[in-house]
Amino acid sequence: MKKRTICCAMILILIVMTGCMYLKPNEGDTMRPLASALTHVSPQVENVVRYEKPPANATDEELLALATKSDPGLLDSFKGYKLRIYSQDRHAIILLCTEDGKRGLLEDLGCTAPLDRNLWKEDAAMPCEFSLSVELGCGLRK
């Protein structure tokens, strides 16, 4: 009887341990710190685009380097991710995507204080494409 109980207990432990290997870690635990970090970088990019007049053909990496030249550590949180920048009318939008560039995770307007969009919460298959509008989000008038 004891052997049977021990055997059943071992099987149960094995099943539980195997099941835990397949559980996805809570994505929110990863995204919340990234969202906070993004809200520190996006106003810096906004300032570069708005006041420093970077070259029109500047790459995302060049704009990020300009924006964080006084504190390059601002980008440390984004290792293993892709940051994209869209600028229009001297405003900037930053989009955080998976490293392969297939899934959008967070999107932020540089002209607003809070994070603007948690794409990861909306759809697991959200593409790495800009969805926010500088015109609407930053209150521009034509």
Description:
The chain is 43% helix and 17% strand. A hairpin with a 5-residue loop joins strand 2 (91-98) and strand 3. The chain is α+β, with helices and mostly antiparallel strands and 142 residues long. The chain has a four-stranded antiparallel sheet with strand order 1-2-3-4. It has five helices and four strands, in the order αααββββαα. Helix 2 packs across helix 3. It has one domain (27-137).
Summarize the model shown.
With 142 residues, this protein is an alpha+beta fold. The chain has helices at 2-21, 27-51, 60-67, 119-122, 134-137, and strands spanning 81-88, 91-98, 104-109, 117-118.
Strand element count: 4
What's the overall average pLDDT, rounded?
A: 86
Largest sheet: 4 strands, antiparallel
End-to-end distance:
82 Å
Low-confidence stretches: 7-23
Range of helix content? 40-55%
Give me the number of helical elements.
Answer: 5
What general form does the structure show?
Answer: globular
